[in-house]
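Hi there. Long-time user, first ticket. I'm pasting a complex I've been working with (about 515 residues overall). I'd like to know whether the download I got is complete or cut off, because the file seemed smaller than I expected. Thanks.
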Amino acid sequence: MSYFTKSPWLIHYDGSSCNGCDIEVLACLTPLYDVERFGIVNTGNPKHADIFLVTGGVNTQNLPVVRQIYEQMPEPHVVVAVGTCACSGGVFRECYNMLGGMDRAIPVDVYVPGCAARPESIIDGVVKALGILEEKAKKLAEKKAEGGTNGAVG
Amino acid sequence: MLKNTVLPFGPQHPVLPEPVHLDLELKDEKVVKAVPSIGYVHRGLEKLVEKRDFQQYVYVAERVCGICSFGHSWGYSKVVEKLMKIEVPKRAEYLRTIWHELSRIHSHLLWLGLAADAMGFESLFMQSWRLRELVLDIFEATTGGRVIFSACKVGGVRRDLNAGQVKLFKDNLALLRKDLQTIAPTFLKDKTVALRLKGVGVLTAEDAHAFGCVGPMARASGLMEDYRLYDEGGAYKELGFKPVLERAGDCYARVAVRIGELYQSLNLIGAALDNLPEGEIAVRPMGFPAVGECFTRVEQPRGEAIYYVKGNGTKNLERFKLRTPTNANIPALVKMLAGCDLADVPNIILTIDPCISCTER
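Hi, the file is complete. Here it is re-exported in full:
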């Protein structure tokens, strides 16, 4: 991963999940798993974030919020859908107001299954996301070199 | 004269792991009024009871909330057992009590961490969450799951404890108690924590009663509100349960109640493990839930939750309804926010221990 000059920062948002995956995302940052030692910071500001960790199957009220956070993130960015609900709707798939999967709201790059997703698999998903982030950054750099700076990539 | 400013708080806010939205009406630095709006985590899972049979629904009931997951599966099982007139074996009741109290420890430690984070005490947040991993290790060793572990079912529990697991319980809880004794004084005696929390968000006993507060929030205002005192299920009566009470009713008292409950839960689990009865861990439910309705209560980490079901004689229940503790505490939160400083808003919101995904289901 030659591109990275700084550690990736992530933003986490609960897109109508049951909390289980959210506390596991936080558990990744705390002493046992401790990804903060690599400089990965959970930021509250979408404009500072490279990785969007999003849980849950998104209900209709939460949809604009998820989209807004996604749109506020600068390019390049990756989206990691954490948990079975975010992957496919999970146990709440048949509920009347759920969209049933994060990819129905925003484009998703990495799917992390599990109910609740374990911290190990969340970290694994983020590592996969870093590869995708690097590719996207390369494409963006090529596009910049060609002179077209304002096109979205990926 | 300037008009009051309206400051939107949430749904995406660094202090909240869950989305909730508040419109804070400000006059300079003081909050005049707070208007909550919810619905970001509403999944409508009560209606799923029509699509899943009564035994499958335990898995859905458990996913009401990932933090108090065991409590919700217990509450649902308990109310269905009441409707079907199932007598749960003694050993199962003890095991349920043990896992439920363990969930309480995990929930309170998680909350202490988030509260420390809200007041800007980052290392205390990390230490609280480090302790919590000891509890999650027990969950994983005894049931296979870390936060959602499906140990409860209608008629009893799914897993038994063997001698090795009981030993792991005792070893980890002894470690936890030792570490807790180094962290708890920071919450209770540290000057910066006291400056941040003492006298903030005061709720008098009268107000707490009038707004119908439950759980640690009511107990911090001096109300003797704890369903574990009257519980017909579980092992609380035999273990000699006494609620933890504080009188001050501020954020500091709410921290003190929860730290007291951590020690109390450790004692309860220790006593339950020592007196664990022999025998079956589950009975098989015969037939379908009868026509009729039933309700029961469970003391969750955040307070009393009410479970209601209506059966229609088929394998699917007709209605499942849940009143969660945060729902009961939100009116008092709105009362406390009026007149507080803007900088204290995150602290006050967190000290009610809001569980949005329980509230909205």
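A couple of notes from our side: Chain B touches chain A at residues 11-14, 17-19, 39-45, 47-48, 51, 59-60, 63-67, 69, 110, 113, 125-127, 129-130, 133, 136, 145-148, 355, 357 (CB under 8 Å). The mean pLDDT of chain B is 85.
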